[in-house]
Amino acid sequence: MKQEKILVTSALPYANGLIHLGHLSGAYLPADIFVRYHRLKGSDIIYICGSDEHGVPITITADKEGITPQQVIDRFHNSNKATFEKFGMSFDIYSRTSLPIHHATAQEFFLSYYEQGLLSEKKTLQFFDAKANMFLPDRYVEGTCPKCGYEEARSDECEKCGSLYDPSELLNPKSKISNSTPQLKETSHWYFPLGKFQERLEKYIDEKNKSFKWKENVLQYCRGWFNDKLADRAVTRDLDWGVKVPIENVKGKVLYVWFEAVLGYISATKELSIAKNEPSLWKKYWQDEKTRYIAFIGKDNVVFHTIIFPAMLMAWNDGNSDKFLLPENVPANEFLNFEGKKFSKSRGWGIDVDEFLELFPADSLRYALASNLPETKDTDFYWREFQLKNNSELADILGNFVNRTFTFASKHFNSRVPKLDELNDRDKEMLERIKNAPKLIGDLIEKYKIKDAVFEMMNFARAGNKYFNDSEPWVTVKNTKQKCGTTINICLQTIYTLAEVFHPVIPFSSEIMFKMLNAKKTNWMKSGIPQLDENHELDKSEILFTKIEDSLIESQVNKLGRVENEDAPDLLPEINYEDFAKLDLRTAKIIGVEKIKKSDKLVKLQVDLGFEKRQIVAGISKHYEAEELIGKNIVVVANLKSAKLFGHESQGMVLAAETKDGNLFLLEPNGKSGLGSKVK
Prior knowledge:
This protein folds into four domains: 5-107 and 254-336, 3-Layer(aba) Sandwich (Rossmann fold); 118-198 and 207-250, Methionyl-trna Synthetase, domain 2, CATH 2.170.220.10; 381-526, Orthogonal Bundle (Isoleucyl-tRNA Synthetase, Domain 1); 577-666, CATH 2.40.50.140. It has a five-stranded antiparallel sheet with strand order 17-16-15-18-21. The termini are far apart. Helix content is 42%, strand content 16%. The protein is of the alpha+beta class. α15 packs antiparallel against α17 and α17 (481-502) runs antiparallel to α18 (507-517).
C-alpha cells in the first residue's frame, strides 16, 4: 500500500490563559486521534501546533500584573505545553510565534504581497482610548450592531448576525479597557484585498467539498461570509508587541495577529526541519502537491482557516515559484459547554485541564470527551456523565473484559496463549468481528466521525465480554479444557485488537495492554488478523481503570460557581451623576408597529412623545406580538444619535428589563405623568 503523506495542524492556542476542556474538544483531541490512527496505518504524517503569542490581550495582562509581555507568554506557553503532554497530545512540535523564525516567515509573506503591489495603504478612522492612550482592537470595543441591534457587537463585526461594517457605524461604542467612550482617530494601515480572492475561494471550497466532503457547519459559515461579500482587511495595527512591519521608516506598527498567527504553522514546520537537521524538510509537507493538509479547529476559527489563510496562500502562490498547499479539509467542531453553561473563569464555571489531570487519569478524560465531541452541534460536559463513562464503560466493560481474560490465562494456562482448537459458530463470529473492527473504526476516523468511531470501539469491547460470557469458560475449563483454551485464545486476540483500535483515544491504557500482552503494536490494517502465537508468554496483568467514587464527583460539582456568586449581576463600573444626566429619558406611547423583513428580532415602532412623533427600531419581536404593543406606555432614550438598523432609521432607544433566561420586558410607566415627561 502506498504511504500517505499528511500534514495536520491544530489551531494555535492563545498564550494568555490556560487550556480548558472546551479547547480539547474543539481543535486538539480530534486531531490527535486522527494523527495517532494514521501513524498506526504507517502514514508519513506530522502534527504541528504551538502558542499564538502576540496581540493586545497579552499587553493588557502584562500591564495589570506589572510584568513584561514576554513573561506572560512564557508562563502560559510552558504551562499549556506541559498540560498537553500530560493529556497525551502527540505533536511533532509545539512551537511559538514569538520566535525569530516565525517573525522572519511572517515578514517574508508581508513583503511578498507588498512587492507584488497587492497591499494598499489606507488612512482610516480607528477607535482610540484616550484614557489608556492606545488604539483599540476590535475585541476591545463593544457597542450596538448597526444591522441587527445586538448590544455586544465588536467594532467592525457582529458575532450575532455575522455582519461586517465600518467602525464608524457602531452604535454606543465603549472601550472594554477603561469603559470610556472611545473616539475615532485617523491612522494608516496596509490592507489585504480579500474580496479579490472571493471567486477563487468559492471555487476552491466547492471543489474540496466535492472530493472530501466538508462538514455542513463549515460550509454554511463560509457561505455566510461569501453572501456578505469579502472586503479588504487590515494586516497591520498600531502596537509595539508583535511582528514588526518590515518597511523602512515605519514605527509603532506590527502585523495584525490574525494575519501572522496562521503562518505559525509554516514557521513551526521550518523549526521542526532544523531540529531534525533537514532544513528543507518542511517543503515536503507544505509544497508537495501529493501531501494532504488537514486543519483541525473550533468553529470560532472557521473564517481564518477556510477563507483568510487560503487567500493568503493563493496570494503567495501568485507571486512566487514555490507553491503552498491549501487545506484539503477543515473539520471544525462546535463548542463544548460545561454543566449546561459556557466556561467562565470569573464565575468559577468549568475546570482547567491541568487541574483536572491532578484528579483523574488522562485516558478517562480523553475517552469521555471523545465519546461526546461537538462534531455537528454544541455538547455539554457533565461531571456525572464523566463518572458514568469511566465506571460503566472503561472499567466495567473494557477493563473487566481484559481482567477476567488474563485471570483465566494466568490461572489455567500458565500465563501463555492457549492453543486454538476446533471452532464453533460463536468462535467464528468473534474472529470475524476481530477481522472487521479495524476497518470499520478506521473508516469512521478517516471521515472525521470520531464520536462514532469511539462508539464502535466500545461496542467491540462489549462483544468481547458477551463472547466470554456466552462461551462459559468457567464451565468448559472443568470438562473440556481445549474448548476453554480456544475461548481464551480468541479473547486474547480480541484484547490485542482492542489495544490497537483504542490506542488513538486512550494511548496510556493501550500501552499497558500491549505490555500485559508482551506484544508490540502492528500496522493498523493488520491488527484484525490474530497476532498472538500459540504458547506466547504473557506479562503480568494490571488494573486498567479504577472506579471514581461519588464523593469525588460531588466535591467537584459543589465547587462550581464558588469564585463568584453565580446569581450576582455583572455590574458596570461606577459612574458620576454627570454621566447619567447626559441621558434624556422620556415617557412615550407606541402608536404603530411594523415587523422588519429578514429580521426575527427587530420591529419598527412609531412612538408619540407628546411634543413629536418618532420612529424607533427595537429588538423585541421575539418577546411581544405586534398587536399587544399598540398603546403601551414606554420609556425611551430621546437624545440617542439616530442610526440605521436593517436599512430603517431609528431615532432613539426603548428601555427594557432582561431576565436571567433572556426574556425582555418593556419598562411601562402608568401614564399619569403624560407623554414626553422626563424620567429622573
